[in-house]
């Protein structure tokens, strides 16, 4: 079960497993709040679509103008094509949420990657993704992959 930490915008520090941060919005910044539990459920549902290979069930989770910064594309079809490509190379690949943080209209998720080959004694690869949510759907994403490069055994 992932650890769920939440940061709020405002003057008070946020307490969770540790003090996360004190965040002060700028005067020109407009924040729309996404209910915490809905944001968490949304990213976990996205991971479920990936892990079960039910990629078409992800359509309703994304806005029509969804933008992926890592892929440089608009729309969910490019993302689903990337999912298909990676699972064709690593059919046993699964992502497991380790931490989820919610702040306003953004949700960050750190996930471990299982079911792929990694060099002996090295940590499994990890994903860190940040999503912006608009009207209850994923509207934009940023992400990085850390750890060893996967090997196809």
TrEMBL record:
<protein>
    <recommendedName>
        <fullName>SnoaL-like domain-containing protein</fullName>
    </recommendedName>
</protein>
<dbReference type="InterPro" id="IPR032710">
    <property type="entry name" value="NTF2-like_dom_sf"/>
</dbReference>
<dbReference type="Pfam" id="PF12680">
    <property type="entry name" value="SnoaL_2"/>
</dbReference>
<dbReference type="InterPro" id="IPR037401">
    <property type="entry name" value="SnoaL-like"/>
</dbReference>
<feature type="domain" description="SnoaL-like">
    <location>
        <begin position="45"/>
        <end position="140"/>
    </location>
</feature>
